[in-house]
Design a protein that fits this description.
Length: 209
């Protein structure tokens, strides 16, 4: 495998995962949890943290052992690596956060199949050093977590009139936002917002569109 030894600035890797290559709002990856479980801020935060940890640990693991992985078995190796760390996170949450785990247990297990994690292992971790892979994993994990929290915030606020269990709206909530279809609606709005921000940025920098 081709390896890059040039360490990139951490802020560049972080900002890329959160903004320009946000897994949900820019790359449209791992949409199942974004729609299925992001009905509250807490649900989005808990799953986001789990994905962040799995992404970071998996990226560093693959980067450290990339020279020992045969190209023909790299995808199965990625899957086994992700499954190992998902199992660790799953057991930890079941032991120490049983309430949260009861709400999202099935989604924790589904992290194994999240496209965003496998993609980053294939596109980045298997080619870069462990330091860069760590920061790339943090950036992509934070990007996913931010996306989940934002979606959860909008859906919880408009769907139940509350945030983290506290009533904050003075009018009757719109129950539509609790439904799965609302997840796609909110994601679509956020995608449009990210595209608009990028367009404005390029125009101010004089970048050819």
């Amino acid at each position: 495998m081709t390896t890059s030894s040039n360490t990139k600035p951490p802020w560049e890797l972080l900002s890329r995962g959160i903004l320009s290559e946000n897994p949900i709002f820019r790359l449209a990856l791992s949409m199942c949890p974004a729609v299925g479980i992001s009905t509250t801020v807490m649900n989005g935060l808990m799953l986001g943290v789990a994905v962040l940890l799995v992404q970071v640990f998996s990226s560093v693991t693959i980067s450290l052992f990339k020279n020992q992985i045969h190209p023909r078995i790299r995808i199965p190796t990625y899957t086994l690596t992700i499954a190992t760390w998902v199992t660790v996170i799953d057991l930890v949450m079941a032991a120490y956060l049983p309430g949260a785990y009861a709400k999202m247990g099935i989604f924790i297990k589904l992290i194994v199949a999240f496209a965003i994690i496998t993609m980053r292992l294939e596109m980045f971790a298997c080619k870069e050093n462990a330091t860069d892979s760590f920061w790339d994993g943090v950036g992509m994990g934070l990007g996913f977590m931010v996306g989940m929290v934002v979606i959860g915030f909008v859906r919880e606020l408009l769907g139940s009139g509350a945030i983290l269990g506290y009533d904050v709206l003075g009018f009757k909530p719109l129950l539509f936002f609790i439904l799965p279809s609302a997840g796609f609606f909110v994601v679509g709005l956020m995608m449009a917002f990210f595209n608009w921000v990028e367009l404005v940025y390029k125009r101010r920098k004089g970048i050819q569109l």
